[in-house]
Write a structure and sequence with these properties.
The structure holds 2 protein chains of 2 kinds. Chain A is mainly beta. Chain A is built from 3 helices and 13 strands. Chain B is elongated. The chains are: A mainly beta, B mainly alpha.
Chain lengths: 229, 155
Protein backbone atom coordinates (compact mmCIF):
# COMPACT_ATOMS: atom_id res chain seq x y z
CA UNK A 1 0.00 0.00 0.00
CA UNK A 2 2.90 2.34 0.90
CA UNK A 3 4.54 1.53 -2.43
CA UNK A 4 1.32 2.33 -4.26
CA UNK A 5 1.14 5.71 -2.49
CA UNK A 6 4.76 6.41 -3.45
CA UNK A 7 4.05 5.58 -7.07
CA UNK A 8 0.92 7.75 -7.07
CA UNK A 9 2.77 10.64 -5.42
CA UNK A 10 5.64 10.41 -7.93
CA UNK A 11 3.12 10.30 -10.80
CA UNK A 12 1.23 13.37 -9.53
CA UNK A 13 4.50 15.32 -9.02
CA UNK A 14 5.62 14.28 -12.51
CA UNK A 15 2.45 15.41 -14.29
CA UNK A 16 2.27 18.70 -12.41
CA UNK A 17 5.97 19.68 -12.51
CA UNK A 18 7.05 18.52 -15.98
CA UNK A 19 4.63 20.67 -18.01
CA UNK A 20 5.79 23.72 -16.06
CA UNK A 21 9.46 23.10 -16.81
CA UNK A 22 11.46 25.86 -18.56
CA UNK A 23 11.08 25.95 -22.33
CA UNK A 24 7.45 24.91 -22.17
CA UNK A 25 6.12 28.00 -20.44
CA UNK A 26 5.64 30.40 -23.38
CA UNK A 27 2.17 30.39 -24.81
CA UNK A 28 1.63 33.64 -26.66
CA UNK A 29 3.48 36.57 -28.19
CA UNK A 30 2.89 39.81 -30.01
CA UNK A 31 5.17 42.11 -31.99
CA UNK A 32 5.23 45.09 -34.32
CA UNK A 33 6.02 43.84 -37.81
CA UNK A 34 7.05 45.29 -41.13
CA UNK A 35 7.27 43.31 -44.38
CA UNK A 36 9.04 44.82 -47.38
CA UNK A 37 8.78 42.99 -50.70
CA UNK A 38 10.29 43.64 -54.11
CA UNK A 39 9.55 41.38 -57.07
CA UNK A 40 11.82 40.77 -60.05
CA UNK A 41 9.43 42.93 -62.11
CA UNK A 42 10.13 45.86 -59.79
CA UNK A 43 6.79 45.83 -57.93
CA UNK A 44 7.06 46.86 -54.29
CA UNK A 45 4.87 46.21 -51.25
CA UNK A 46 5.02 47.41 -47.67
CA UNK A 47 2.89 45.91 -44.92
CA UNK A 48 3.06 47.18 -41.32
CA UNK A 49 1.19 46.54 -38.12
CA UNK A 50 1.08 44.21 -35.15
CA UNK A 51 0.95 40.42 -35.10
CA UNK A 52 -0.54 38.30 -32.30
CA UNK A 53 -0.22 34.56 -31.80
CA UNK A 54 -1.50 32.28 -29.06
CA UNK A 55 -0.39 28.65 -29.38
CA UNK A 56 -3.49 27.36 -27.61
CA UNK A 57 -6.03 29.06 -29.85
CA UNK A 58 -3.68 28.63 -32.87
CA UNK A 59 -4.92 31.87 -34.40
CA UNK A 60 -2.51 34.25 -36.12
CA UNK A 61 -3.94 37.76 -36.02
CA UNK A 62 -2.41 40.59 -38.05
CA UNK A 63 -3.63 44.05 -37.09
CA UNK A 64 -2.53 45.81 -40.25
CA UNK A 65 -2.15 49.59 -40.22
CA UNK A 66 -0.50 50.04 -43.63
CA UNK A 67 -1.35 49.92 -46.57
CA UNK A 68 -4.90 50.04 -45.17
CA UNK A 69 -6.29 49.61 -41.68
CA UNK A 70 -7.64 46.06 -41.59
CA UNK A 71 -7.29 42.76 -39.74
CA UNK A 72 -6.12 39.45 -41.18
CA UNK A 73 -6.94 36.37 -39.14
CA UNK A 74 -5.60 32.91 -39.99
CA UNK A 75 -7.64 30.10 -38.41
CA UNK A 76 -7.02 26.50 -39.54
CA UNK A 77 -7.13 26.63 -43.34
CA UNK A 78 -8.92 29.96 -43.69
CA UNK A 79 -7.62 33.50 -43.97
CA UNK A 80 -10.16 36.18 -43.12
CA UNK A 81 -9.74 39.79 -44.23
CA UNK A 82 -11.73 42.00 -41.90
CA UNK A 83 -12.37 45.71 -42.30
CA UNK A 84 -14.03 47.35 -39.31
CA UNK A 85 -15.93 44.36 -37.97
CA UNK A 86 -17.05 43.07 -41.34
CA UNK A 87 -15.49 40.02 -43.02
CA UNK A 88 -14.64 41.25 -46.51
CA UNK A 89 -12.94 38.14 -47.82
CA UNK A 90 -12.26 34.51 -46.88
CA UNK A 91 -9.52 32.51 -48.59
CA UNK A 92 -8.38 28.92 -48.34
CA UNK A 93 -4.78 28.67 -47.14
CA UNK A 94 -2.58 25.79 -45.98
CA UNK A 95 -2.77 24.97 -42.25
CA UNK A 96 0.33 26.90 -41.27
CA UNK A 97 -0.19 27.99 -37.65
CA UNK A 98 1.76 25.07 -36.18
CA UNK A 99 4.59 25.54 -38.67
CA UNK A 100 4.75 29.31 -38.20
CA UNK A 101 7.83 30.98 -36.78
CA UNK A 102 5.70 32.07 -33.79
CA UNK A 103 4.60 28.55 -32.89
CA UNK A 104 8.11 27.13 -33.42
CA UNK A 105 9.66 29.83 -31.21
CA UNK A 106 7.12 29.49 -28.41
CA UNK A 107 7.71 25.73 -28.36
CA UNK A 108 11.50 26.05 -28.55
CA UNK A 109 11.60 24.23 -31.91
CA UNK A 110 12.94 27.08 -34.03
CA UNK A 111 16.55 25.81 -33.87
CA UNK A 112 15.76 23.12 -36.44
CA UNK A 113 12.87 24.99 -38.14
CA UNK A 114 10.51 22.30 -36.80
CA UNK A 115 11.99 19.75 -39.24
CA UNK A 116 12.76 17.36 -36.39
CA UNK A 117 9.03 17.08 -35.75
CA UNK A 118 8.23 16.59 -39.45
CA UNK A 119 8.62 13.59 -41.76
CA UNK A 120 12.04 14.90 -42.86
CA UNK A 121 15.12 12.99 -41.63
CA UNK A 122 18.74 14.11 -41.25
CA UNK A 123 20.82 13.04 -44.25
CA UNK A 124 24.11 14.79 -43.49
CA UNK A 125 25.67 17.06 -40.86
CA UNK A 126 28.77 19.17 -41.64
CA UNK A 127 30.71 21.81 -39.74
CA UNK A 128 31.87 24.66 -41.96
CA UNK A 129 33.49 27.69 -40.33
CA UNK A 130 31.09 29.02 -37.70
CA UNK A 131 28.14 27.16 -39.22
CA UNK A 132 26.74 23.70 -38.61
CA UNK A 133 25.01 22.67 -41.81
CA UNK A 134 22.37 19.93 -41.78
CA UNK A 135 20.85 18.42 -44.89
CA UNK A 136 17.32 17.07 -44.42
CA UNK A 137 15.69 14.67 -46.84
CA UNK A 138 12.13 13.42 -47.20
CA UNK A 139 11.52 9.64 -46.96
CA UNK A 140 11.99 7.82 -50.27
CA UNK A 141 8.22 7.50 -50.88
CA UNK A 142 7.86 11.31 -50.65
CA UNK A 143 11.15 12.28 -52.27
CA UNK A 144 9.45 12.72 -55.67
CA UNK A 145 7.34 15.46 -54.12
CA UNK A 146 9.44 17.10 -51.42
CA UNK A 147 12.97 18.24 -52.18
CA UNK A 148 15.85 18.43 -49.74
CA UNK A 149 16.13 21.21 -47.18
CA UNK A 150 19.57 22.48 -46.15
CA UNK A 151 19.68 24.28 -42.82
CA UNK A 152 22.46 26.07 -41.02
CA UNK A 153 22.93 27.09 -37.41
CA UNK A 154 25.28 29.70 -35.96
CA UNK A 155 25.93 29.75 -32.22
CA UNK A 156 23.24 27.06 -31.84
CA UNK A 157 20.65 29.37 -33.38
CA UNK A 158 18.86 28.89 -36.70
CA UNK A 159 20.67 30.99 -39.31
CA UNK A 160 19.55 29.90 -42.77
CA UNK A 161 17.14 27.51 -44.47
CA UNK A 162 17.43 26.66 -48.16
CA UNK A 163 14.64 24.84 -50.01
CA UNK A 164 15.06 22.75 -53.16
CA UNK A 165 12.62 21.06 -55.54
CA UNK A 166 12.77 17.25 -55.86
CA UNK A 167 14.92 17.88 -58.99
CA UNK A 168 17.44 19.79 -56.79
CA UNK A 169 16.52 23.21 -58.17
CA UNK A 170 16.92 26.06 -55.67
CA UNK A 171 13.51 27.46 -54.64
CA UNK A 172 14.16 29.87 -51.80
CA UNK A 173 16.53 30.96 -49.05
CA UNK A 174 15.59 32.35 -45.66
CA UNK A 175 18.00 33.97 -43.21
CA UNK A 176 17.12 34.48 -39.56
CA UNK A 177 19.08 37.32 -37.99
CA UNK A 178 19.40 39.67 -35.02
CA UNK A 179 17.91 37.38 -32.39
CA UNK A 180 16.41 39.06 -29.38
CA UNK A 181 15.92 37.36 -26.05
CA UNK A 182 12.62 38.32 -24.46
CA UNK A 183 12.24 36.75 -21.01
CA UNK A 184 14.11 33.69 -22.29
CA UNK A 185 12.32 33.44 -25.64
CA UNK A 186 14.78 33.61 -28.55
CA UNK A 187 13.20 35.26 -31.58
CA UNK A 188 14.80 36.48 -34.84
CA UNK A 189 13.92 40.14 -35.36
CA UNK A 190 14.95 40.13 -39.02
CA UNK A 191 14.16 37.54 -41.69
CA UNK A 192 15.57 37.94 -45.18
CA UNK A 193 13.96 35.79 -47.85
CA UNK A 194 15.09 35.38 -51.44
CA UNK A 195 12.71 33.43 -53.70
CA UNK A 196 13.83 32.19 -57.11
CA UNK A 197 11.15 32.19 -59.81
CA UNK A 198 12.17 31.52 -63.42
CA UNK A 199 15.81 32.35 -62.60
CA UNK A 200 14.79 35.73 -61.17
CA UNK A 201 15.10 36.84 -57.58
CA UNK A 202 12.29 38.22 -55.42
CA UNK A 203 13.16 39.77 -52.07
CA UNK A 204 11.32 40.01 -48.81
CA UNK A 205 12.63 41.47 -45.55
CA UNK A 206 10.52 41.05 -42.42
CA UNK A 207 11.38 42.86 -39.19
CA UNK A 208 9.88 42.46 -35.73
CA UNK A 209 10.08 45.03 -32.93
CA UNK A 210 8.61 45.50 -29.45
CA UNK A 211 8.15 41.77 -28.87
CA UNK A 212 6.00 40.95 -25.83
CA UNK A 213 5.78 37.39 -24.55
CA UNK A 214 2.94 35.86 -22.50
CA UNK A 215 1.01 39.11 -22.43
CA UNK A 216 -2.09 38.71 -20.23
CA UNK A 217 -3.88 41.64 -21.82
CA UNK A 218 -5.68 41.91 -25.17
CA UNK A 219 -7.25 38.46 -24.80
CA UNK A 220 -9.92 39.55 -27.27
CA UNK A 221 -7.26 39.86 -29.99
CA UNK A 222 -5.31 36.68 -29.19
CA UNK A 223 -8.61 34.75 -29.21
CA UNK A 224 -10.17 36.74 -32.03
CA UNK A 225 -13.87 35.96 -32.37
CA UNK A 226 -15.24 36.27 -35.86
CA UNK A 227 -18.62 37.89 -36.11
CA UNK A 228 -21.04 36.13 -38.44
CA UNK A 229 -22.01 38.19 -41.47
CA UNK B 1 51.98 4.25 -59.55
CA UNK B 2 52.97 6.74 -56.83
CA UNK B 3 52.23 9.64 -59.16
CA UNK B 4 48.84 8.15 -59.94
CA UNK B 5 48.02 7.81 -56.21
CA UNK B 6 49.11 11.42 -55.53
CA UNK B 7 46.97 12.63 -58.44
CA UNK B 8 43.97 10.60 -57.24
CA UNK B 9 44.44 12.03 -53.72
CA UNK B 10 44.63 15.59 -55.04
CA UNK B 11 41.47 15.10 -57.12
CA UNK B 12 39.65 13.61 -54.11
CA UNK B 13 40.73 16.59 -51.95
CA UNK B 14 39.62 19.08 -54.60
CA UNK B 15 36.27 17.33 -54.97
CA UNK B 16 35.64 17.25 -51.22
CA UNK B 17 36.63 20.92 -50.91
CA UNK B 18 34.36 21.72 -53.83
CA UNK B 19 31.39 20.01 -52.19
CA UNK B 20 32.04 21.76 -48.86
CA UNK B 21 32.38 25.17 -50.51
CA UNK B 22 29.11 24.74 -52.37
CA UNK B 23 27.14 24.00 -49.19
CA UNK B 24 28.59 26.99 -47.33
CA UNK B 25 27.97 29.13 -50.43
CA UNK B 26 24.26 28.42 -50.12
CA UNK B 27 24.23 30.62 -47.05
CA UNK B 28 25.87 33.62 -48.69
CA UNK B 29 23.56 36.57 -49.17
CA UNK B 30 24.33 40.05 -50.38
CA UNK B 31 22.52 41.66 -47.46
CA UNK B 32 23.58 45.20 -48.36
CA UNK B 33 22.47 44.67 -51.95
CA UNK B 34 19.06 43.36 -50.85
CA UNK B 35 18.56 46.30 -48.46
CA UNK B 36 19.61 48.78 -51.15
CA UNK B 37 16.96 47.32 -53.46
CA UNK B 38 14.40 47.99 -50.72
CA UNK B 39 15.61 51.53 -50.10
CA UNK B 40 12.44 53.14 -51.46
CA UNK B 41 10.34 51.07 -49.09
CA UNK B 42 12.60 52.03 -46.16
CA UNK B 43 11.79 55.70 -46.86
CA UNK B 44 8.09 54.88 -47.05
CA UNK B 45 8.32 52.94 -43.77
CA UNK B 46 9.96 55.92 -42.03
CA UNK B 47 7.24 58.22 -43.37
CA UNK B 48 4.46 55.90 -42.12
CA UNK B 49 6.15 55.69 -38.70
CA UNK B 50 6.30 59.46 -38.48
CA UNK B 51 2.70 59.98 -39.63
CA UNK B 52 0.54 57.79 -37.41
CA UNK B 53 -2.57 56.46 -39.15
CA UNK B 54 -1.53 57.34 -42.72
CA UNK B 55 -2.70 54.80 -45.33
CA UNK B 56 -1.80 53.99 -48.91
CA UNK B 57 -5.08 55.58 -50.09
CA UNK B 58 -4.13 58.85 -48.32
CA UNK B 59 -0.73 58.86 -50.00
CA UNK B 60 -2.24 58.02 -53.40
CA UNK B 61 -4.69 60.89 -52.99
CA UNK B 62 -1.73 63.20 -52.43
CA UNK B 63 0.10 61.71 -55.47
CA UNK B 64 3.11 60.95 -53.30
CA UNK B 65 6.35 60.36 -55.23
CA UNK B 66 7.26 57.55 -52.84
CA UNK B 67 4.65 55.31 -54.47
CA UNK B 68 6.19 54.99 -57.93
CA UNK B 69 6.24 51.16 -57.85
CA UNK B 70 4.28 50.47 -54.68
CA UNK B 71 1.14 48.37 -54.96
CA UNK B 72 -1.49 47.27 -52.44
CA UNK B 73 -0.47 44.43 -50.12
CA UNK B 74 -1.93 41.02 -50.70
CA UNK B 75 -2.87 39.11 -47.55
CA UNK B 76 -1.83 35.91 -49.34
CA UNK B 77 1.69 37.34 -49.78
CA UNK B 78 2.25 37.35 -46.04
CA UNK B 79 2.03 33.56 -46.03
CA UNK B 80 5.39 33.39 -47.76
CA UNK B 81 7.00 34.48 -44.51
CA UNK B 82 5.20 31.79 -42.59
CA UNK B 83 5.25 28.66 -44.71
CA UNK B 84 7.10 27.15 -47.64
CA UNK B 85 4.02 25.43 -49.02
CA UNK B 86 1.38 26.79 -51.38
CA UNK B 87 -2.38 26.14 -51.63
CA UNK B 88 -1.97 22.67 -53.10
CA UNK B 89 1.30 20.74 -52.87
CA UNK B 90 3.65 22.24 -55.50
CA UNK B 91 0.60 23.80 -57.18
CA UNK B 92 -0.42 20.40 -58.62
CA UNK B 93 -4.20 19.67 -58.42
CA UNK B 94 -5.22 17.27 -55.65
CA UNK B 95 -6.92 14.94 -58.19
CA UNK B 96 -3.61 14.44 -60.04
CA UNK B 97 -1.84 13.66 -56.76
CA UNK B 98 -4.30 10.82 -56.07
CA UNK B 99 -4.25 9.64 -59.68
CA UNK B 100 -0.46 9.39 -59.95
CA UNK B 101 0.64 8.48 -56.44
CA UNK B 102 -2.39 6.59 -55.09
CA UNK B 103 -2.72 6.53 -51.31
CA UNK B 104 0.61 8.39 -50.93
CA UNK B 105 -0.90 11.26 -52.95
CA UNK B 106 -3.96 11.31 -50.66
CA UNK B 107 -1.73 11.46 -47.57
CA UNK B 108 0.34 14.33 -49.05
CA UNK B 109 -2.77 16.35 -49.98
CA UNK B 110 -4.30 15.69 -46.55
CA UNK B 111 -1.24 16.86 -44.61
CA UNK B 112 -0.30 19.82 -46.80
CA UNK B 113 -3.76 21.31 -47.39
CA UNK B 114 -5.64 19.96 -44.34
CA UNK B 115 -8.75 20.43 -46.49
CA UNK B 116 -11.48 17.76 -46.70
CA UNK B 117 -12.60 18.81 -50.19
CA UNK B 118 -9.06 18.66 -51.60
CA UNK B 119 -8.48 15.27 -49.92
CA UNK B 120 -11.74 14.01 -51.46
CA UNK B 121 -10.49 15.09 -54.91
CA UNK B 122 -7.26 13.17 -54.28
CA UNK B 123 -9.35 10.11 -53.26
CA UNK B 124 -11.31 10.30 -56.55
CA UNK B 125 -8.02 10.54 -58.41
CA UNK B 126 -6.75 7.51 -56.53
CA UNK B 127 -9.94 5.52 -57.34
CA UNK B 128 -9.73 6.43 -61.02
CA UNK B 129 -6.04 5.47 -61.06
CA UNK B 130 -6.88 2.12 -59.47
CA UNK B 131 -9.73 1.53 -61.96
CA UNK B 132 -7.41 2.27 -64.92
CA UNK B 133 -4.82 -0.08 -63.45
CA UNK B 134 -7.49 -2.83 -62.97
CA UNK B 135 -8.75 -2.45 -66.57
CA UNK B 136 -5.23 -2.72 -67.98
CA UNK B 137 -4.55 -5.71 -65.72
CA UNK B 138 -7.72 -7.51 -66.97
CA UNK B 139 -6.77 -6.75 -70.61
CA UNK B 140 -3.25 -8.06 -69.90
CA UNK B 141 -4.61 -11.29 -68.36
CA UNK B 142 -7.11 -11.77 -71.22
CA UNK B 143 -4.33 -11.33 -73.80
CA UNK B 144 -2.11 -13.88 -72.01
CA UNK B 145 -4.98 -16.40 -71.75
CA UNK B 146 -5.90 -15.83 -75.39
CA UNK B 147 -2.28 -16.25 -76.43
CA UNK B 148 -1.98 -19.46 -74.38
CA UNK B 149 -5.21 -20.80 -75.88
CA UNK B 150 -4.08 -20.09 -79.43
CA UNK B 151 -0.74 -21.80 -78.71
CA UNK B 152 -2.56 -24.90 -77.34
CA UNK B 153 -4.79 -25.04 -80.45
CA UNK B 154 -1.76 -24.90 -82.76
CA UNK B 155 -0.11 -27.89 -81.11
Amino acid sequence: MKNLRKVLFTFIVFITVVPASPGQQFFRMKADFSIKEKTAEGKERLTMGQVYYDKNSKKIVYNVRFPEKETWVIIDTSLYRIVGKEIKEVRKVPAIAEFSIFHLSLNGNIKDYGLKQSFYAVDKIEKEGDMVITTWKAPEKLSKVFGKVVMSQKERKLYGVVFFTPADVLVSKQFFKNYSNVNGLEFPTEIIQVTYIKNQENYQVTTYKNIIVDDMQEDNIYNYKLLAN
Amino acid sequence: MKKLLVLAGAVACMLSLGVKASNADLFQVDETGVKQKLNGLNQLENYVNKHEGVTLSDLKANHSEMLANVEDSDAQGILGTLSAFGDTPLGIPAFVWGLCLGWVGIVIVYFVTDDKEETKKALWGCLLGSAIYAIFYVIYVVLIVASAASTTTTY
